[in-house]
Amino acid sequence: MLRKILAAAIVAISLPTIAQAGETVRLAVTDIEGLEALQQEFGPFEAAIEKSTGLDVELFPVGNRTAAVEAMKSGQVDFVLTGPAEYVVIKELATPEIVVAWQRPDYFAQIVTLATGPVKQVSDLKGKVISFGSVGSTSQHLGPAQALADLGLDYGRDYEPKIISRNVAIEALIRGDLSAIGMNFGHLQKARKAYPDVAFTVIARGRDLPNDILVARTGLDKNLVAKVRKAFEEDGQDLLAAVLKGDDNQKYRGGFFLSSVNDADYDYVRSMYKTIGVERFTSFVGD
Q1: How far apart are CA 100 and CA 135, in angstroms?
Q2: Which of 5, 111, 175, 205 is spaced 20 to 30 A from 137 at the CA atom?
Q3: 172, 195, 170, 196: which is closest to 183 by C-alpha?
Q4: How far is it, in rounded angstroms, from Cα 60 to Cα 87?
Q5: Which one, of 247, 24, 284, lies nearest residue 137 by Cα?
Q6: E strands present in the chain
Q7: Which residues sit opposite 215 in a β-bridge?
Q8: pLDDT digits (tens, 9 = 90+) for 213-232
Q9: What is the DSSP letter of 45?
């Protein structure tokens, strides 16, 4: 009888350990829609983080940034990977905990024009039309607007801002319908490849932008968050190699996972929002 009692006690004690080892956590990525695309980009990373942490990680698709916030607040998703502009709003709405930053090398905003055109310096853009990419985009809208503001041009006052898709904007720039375009370094590389006979030039460049960031929902077990953070600190190279198997994730090539990051690092993004006239961060610009 005593042996049976001891055996039952051992089983009872071991069950929570087994359950904890197989605990499921859900991960969402704000700029990828649909489970198929999410699995294609982050499937290898899902397997790598599972191996590193011993957790059961499940990719959780969200339709948009607002849906990601609601999923966090309702406990449907535990971790969210998001961009710097989105983070500022998510922080205000859902008060998540920062886990680790995902560095993007050469991630900065710039103002591009034609090398053969009349615009030679930023002051030449006064009274002109400048196009920006997606509303609220860190590197295509907020960052370029801030780069101009840092050099003395006020958004919507010293020039006319227009939100135009990048490919359409480049054609308009070549035709002379626009004077300049706000874009990031990667976009300029693609433009030069797509238009090899056109000479583009950069007349303004912003500082490196804050990194993408992985956050954990408020209330998530602190030990679990620490385990995930530790995986990035100890197995970062393996995790990055898995991330880079996704085509769209090549933006992280050459970067690092940074655990020494805090909310104040994103005050520069908050200043960008204020530059375009947004004083409160309670909703996503453009939604």
Answers
A1: 26
A2: 175
A3: 170
A4: 18
A5: 284
A6: 24-29, 56-59, 79-82, 97-102, 108-114, 129-132, 160-163, 180-184, 200-208, 212-216, 257-258
A7: 80, 98
A8: 999 999 999 999 999 999 99
A9: H
Q: What is the pTM of this model?
A: 0.87
2-104+210-275 and 108-208: identical CATH topology: yes
Q: Give the separation between CA 167 and CA 128, rounded to whole angstroms.
A: 20
Measured torsion, CA atoms of residues 249, 254, 259, 262, in degrees rounded to the nearest 10: -80
Hey, what amino acid is at 180?
Answer: A
**Architecture per CATH, 2-104+210-275:** 3-Layer(aba) Sandwich (3.40)
Q: Are 29 and 38 in contact (CB under 8 A)?
A: yes
C-alpha 106/C-alpha 45 separation (Å) is 23
Tell which CATH classification among 3.40.30.10, 3.40.190.10, 1.10.490.10, 3.30.360.10 matches the domain 108-208: 3.40.190.10
CA dihedral defined by 220, 224, 229, 234, rounded to 10 degrees? -170
Alpha carbons 286 and 169: distance in angstroms, whole number: 19
- Dist. CA 247–CA 197, nearest whole Å: 27
For tokens 């801030």, name the residue.
Answer: 146
Q: Pairing state of beta strands 212-216 and 129-132? A: unpaired
Residues 90-128 have pLDDT tens digits of 999 999 999 999 999 999 999 999 999 999 999 999 999
- Sequence-distant (6+) residues with CB within 8 A of 182 are 109, 110, 111, 112, 130, 131, 132, 133, 140, 141, 143, 144, 145, 147
